[in-house]
Specification:
Blueprint: H1 26-41, E1 46-48, E2 58-61, E3 73-84, E4 87-93, E5 96-105, E6 108-114, E7 120-126, H2 128-140, H3 151-169
Antiparallel strand pairs: 1-2, 2-3, 3-6, 4-5, 6-7
The chain binds nickel (II) ion.
């Protein structure tokens, strides 16, 4: 396993739509393991393949409480099949440094996907897990949480980020 570098905004990888995984094989399982290790090292509660430069529909999630045992989940080709309610959550993203913002999401979602062995799974998420699932699945369509905040807030962040990157380069 390896900790992979995380792509950050405005890297073009983050705005690309990902493609379906055709075969769940050892290469894919290796990528999923590396993504989990990268997520835990960050630390974060979810990571999507484009955040490490892959264009596959693959996400990893662990929304367990800090005091509980780890509960890693690998979701291949995930899709939302049920969604209801609404909730506002202060979101952040490993690919969007130095920003958290309120985002409105569904309060409950049901996701169908394949697991790391290629077996179909169905997963219900309420609250934090629902938010996390929607946030990570958005990544697979090239969407970041800042695409769901006000245009003004997004523009301000973009400006700040460009300035910061220029400063880092200098
Ligand atoms: Ni994210």
């Amino acid at each position: 396993m390896a900790v992979l570098p995380i792509k950050t905004y405005p890297d073009p990888c983050l705005s690309q739509a990902c493609r379906q995984v055709e075969v769940v094989d050892d290469d894919l399982r290796r990528l999923a393991s590396d993504m989990l290790e990268t997520m835990y090292a960050a630390p974060g509660v979810g990571l999507a393949a484009p955040q490490v430069g892959s264009d596959l529909r693959l996400v990893v999630i662990d929304c367990a409480n800090r005091d509980d045992d780890p509960a890693p989940m690998v979701l291949v080709n995930p899709r939302i099949v049920e969604a209801e309610g609404s909730l506002v959550f202060d979101e952040g993203c490993l690919s969007v440094p130095d920003l958290t913002c309120d985002v409105t999401r569904h309060e409950r979602v049901v996701v169908e996907a394949l697991d790391a062995q290629g077996r179909p799974l169905r997963l219900e998420g309420v609250g934090l897990l629902a938010v996390c699932l929607q946030h990570e699945l958005d990544h697979l369509d090239g969407r970041l949480f800042i695409d769901r905040i006000s245009p003004l807030k997004r523009a301000l962040y973009k400006k700040r980020r460009v300035k910061q990157l220029k400063r880092d380069e200098a």
